[in-house]
């Protein structure tokens, strides 16, 4: 029988076939003609030589000199005239501020490429969250506008200024109102600019609102103590923490700061002293904070209010009505035990609630006053200024626009057409306003409705400041010239204020030198060097509570009864997406949710028992209809720990006009939010119905299985006090092992790592930090679904539950439905273990993966031929294979591979090509840089000179890296802990990463 196969003698013959051309068109693209290259750069064949070199220059040349060109060019030639401060190959660091947190910005050849915490930030030097780490990518977002927009057409700033000034003069003459609508502003200089604008146009009012509101706390403190503030919470001073739905380690107020405080009472250093705080979490949906609690009790949203009343009655001996939990006896019993513990820890306890209801927060204030929290764990005299939104004022703005009273509205860092509770009501009202100006950096849901888009700058291009806490100030300074033809919003307001126009830099400096620096006793240059300063903090006063709670209890009872009559929906901020402002950031879209491990989507989280009762299976698409009639369709996710009778949906998704990466990812849950009693409420009732379709979510947790091996080791604090090695498996004799190879000699350094499972909260900041530092590509939802995510470090989430009196831990789905609501969670960072007997090294046919003399497992990318034997042989499943050339493939052009976003790449780390295996390198480039610096300074390498990207980002100091040959190094001390064990050590691969046993403080007082 004749075969249809065709054979070729060599590649020369094969390369001309249609199959070869089609399969490789993305990898072997023909170079563009020189005319096309010049046209893309905005040049021509007759362009003067100097302009040509400017446009084709690298770093500062490509960005700052060619910033106004339509498309950036990433050709590289030497500088003609090198900027004095730029030394090729040597990074520069600049202090700045991101969302009120002082940071360091690393630049290379004029390009910002990495965000680090500022070591000069004092008590606020607490790592960085995933949003801060990913923020550098927003600078290079190609979805941003390249110039200002007037009446839907790109224009010049002169024409924008002429138009806006003319319209403002008409508004002034009409006597109608002007409104500046923004998210919370903590910048002293921005507040002054708004004040100057208001002085020029007296009918102006600044309306601040936050998509996720804290108005309830502010109003409650005003009612209780006469202080309309968010307190400064001191979790480090609390031996006992009780939280009702507040995700304080994740998204509530200031997660990174609270994480650093919280872990300071629970890490290996504190445990070695025999101390550990205790944490109870009562919540409906499984939050990041809930996964870290010592004791977590699922309660329905309608039960949170009665639970607080029960706790108040237990502590004070009063008998407020509405405090019974008839359907949740375990929570009712626990609350009585918690009440006794709070009384035993007066002055050393803290109760917090994630509710935005004023009555609920007033009751929380009463509880904290009764247990002596004010002046110790709660500070009202040095308050937090991150959030100052007023829900009622924003609601009144819509009424004013509907009445035709507002003639001009300006939107600053706000997008109410997306995140307002009733976006249609808002947009209908906005259509009645004459002048509409947005300071957005892109055509988003709100700016597309505006007459003018005064394109704002990224914070890395801007001057400014922040005042996140009373007495704590930080500066924002530009790290690069404006990439596009943009202008700071503050500068625009100054231009339109009809006063003497000055550069915003000078305005900020004048404000500091006049009002702030004299108080701090510092100079402007010292500020730019240090980045942040604190004035002397006020003494935190003790406050007593004297309000009657009868009306409060009645309000809470009414709200609870209204919720309890149907399926209860909780809408919440997810750790990756938050409120959706950065929904076009590919690093955040591909960051797995810390609990569900889902990427690129939101979903309906349902408890296993409840899903079974409703007849839903995982990935079934259901229709979710709110009490206001708003309906969306989302897939079901079976979530252990979710309270039965409740479902949860994340906010921040469903953007329709944000950019190529984020458009139409997930569904918008903001319309489920309601406005009740003057504040936004994030709990409501819904009905669910099957649609008959399914949608597979892209989860990372289910990609690898360890088949029930002893990966996670746990013990209670009581057991640990009796035996510091409890649960670690370090008792008795180890199984004798035999080596097939000689032992590696490590005469210089021995780079090792320790990871404290008690400190790791699972937030994922380390994942994004690693992505940015090591040029790890984003692959998109479909590739993640195919198990092809490229993350070098992952955080595995393990559920554990009690079965017949024994603890059982599983990393995937739990088949035992009856135990699903009582699960506890452990987070475990997993990366290349840099084994001394690395099983990957022995199977590589081309020696692409080899061992170094300082204990590291290296990858030689140009040797790798992609056999993937190493990945098959790795027991930790931490090696990643490039199925595509993700950095240069048109199928992934909405993520990171266009010419402009590639400016974020770290030049010290090569990008990997198709067919190449990669994995954690222990940031070898940082190790080499640290060694070189010590050599130049003619001194030995010191402990702490070298920090990994993941380690530096971690707020909890859960990751400790250093030289194992130095007995005084922090990592050596950590690895000597009795809690230290090695994952899969029974395989005798001799990993270089040690883990410390998870300890839970679960022992409570007896009833």
Overall CATH class of the largest domain: Alpha Beta
Q: Strand order across the biggest sheet?
A: 5-4-16-15-14-6-7
Structural category:
alpha/beta
Instruction: Report the principal-axis shape.
Output: globular
CATH structural architecture of the largest domain: 2-Layer Sandwich
Number of domains: 5
Helix fraction by DSSP (H/I, runs of at least 4): 25-40%
Largest sheet: 7 strands, mixed
The total count of helices amounts to 31
- Alpha carbon gyration radius: 29 Å
Q: For the terminal residues, how far apart are their CA atoms?
A: 85 Å
Strand fraction band? 15-25%
Low-confidence stretches: 40-77, 810-819
CATH topology of the largest domain: Alpha-Beta Plaits
**Number of β-strand runs:** 42
pLDDT average, as an integer? 87
Protein topology:
Blueprint: H1 11-14, H2 18-23, H3 34-40, H4 49-56, H5 60-65, E1 92-98, E2 101-108, E3 111-117, H6 130-139, E4 149-150, E5 153-154, H7 157-174, E6 177-182, H8 188-200, E7 204-208, H9 215-225, E8 230-233, E9 240-244, H10 255-263, H11 268-272, E10 278-283, H12 288-292, E11 295-298, H13 301-316, H14 329-344, E12 349-353, H15 358-370, E13 378-384, H16 391-402, E14 406-412, H17 416-419, H18 423-430, E15 435-438, E16 452-453, E17 464-469, E18 472-476, H19 489-496, H20 504-520, H21 524-530, E19 532-534, H22 550-563, E20 567-572, H23 586-589, E21 598-599, E22 604-606, H24 608-614, E23 620-626, E24 631-638, E25 646-650, E26 674-676, E27 679-681, E28 683-694, E29 698-699, E30 714-716, H25 717-722, E31 751-756, H26 765-773, H27 781-785, E32 794-803, E33 806-810, E34 824-830, E35 849-851, E36 857-859, H28 869-873, E37 880-881, E38 917-918, H29 924-936, H30 949-953, E39 959-963, H31 970-975, E40 980-981, E41 993-996, E42 998-1000
Parallel strand pairs: 6-7, 6-14, 9-10, 9-12, 10-11, 14-15, 15-16, 20-25, 22-24, 30-42, 31-41
Antiparallel strand pairs: 1-2, 2-3, 4-5, 4-16, 8-13, 17-18, 18-19, 20-28, 21-29, 22-25, 23-24, 23-28, 26-27, 31-39, 32-33, 32-34, 35-36, 37-38, 40-41
Helix pairs in contact: 6-26, 8-19, 9-15, 13-14, 13-15, 13-22, 15-22, 16-18
